[in-house]
Amino acid sequence: MKLGELAALPLTYTEVGATAGPLPAGYHHVHESAVIGHGRRRFDEAAAAVMRWGMLRGAGVRVDATTEVAAVGSEVIVRLGPVRAPCRVVYVLDAPDHRGFAYGTLPGHAEIGEELFAVRYDAGDDAVYAEVTAFSRHGTWWSRLAGPVTALVQRIVSKRYVKAV
Description:
The chain is α+β, with helices and mostly antiparallel strands and 165 residues long. It has 4 helices and 7 strands.
C-alpha cells in the first residue's frame, strides 16, 4: 500500500480520539513527558516543529505524509528501518498552551492503536513540555511473536520523540 492509497482504508481500532482522555483498557499504555525549555517562544518553536512531523523525524523515523503540516485526515507512512507503519491523523490540538496531533493505525501497521505527539506550555513555571501518549496492542503475528522487543523499541522511540523537539 502506497501513500495516497490509504484514504479508503478504515482505522484498525474503535477508540478513536482516546489519547485525549482516559486511555482504553486492553491496550499497552505509554506516557512520556520531558521539559524541553522555557518560555512562550520555545513553545511556539516546538509546536511548529511537532506539527511538521518534527518529533518523528527528529527521533530518526522516516516520514512520508500527504501534507506538510499535520491535519485531520493527513495520511502518513512512518518507517523505522524496514518496518512500514501506515497511519491517519485523527485529531489536532490547537489550544494556546497545548498543540499537537494524534494519529491512528491503518491496515498494514504492525500495531493497533493511537499515538499523540504534543507540546504544552505551563505558564505557572514557564516550562515547555514535550509529550507522547499512546495506546497500542499487537496487530500482526510477527509483532506478537516479537512482543518483548517491540515493547522495548516503543519505549526507546517514545523517549526519543520527546527529546527530538
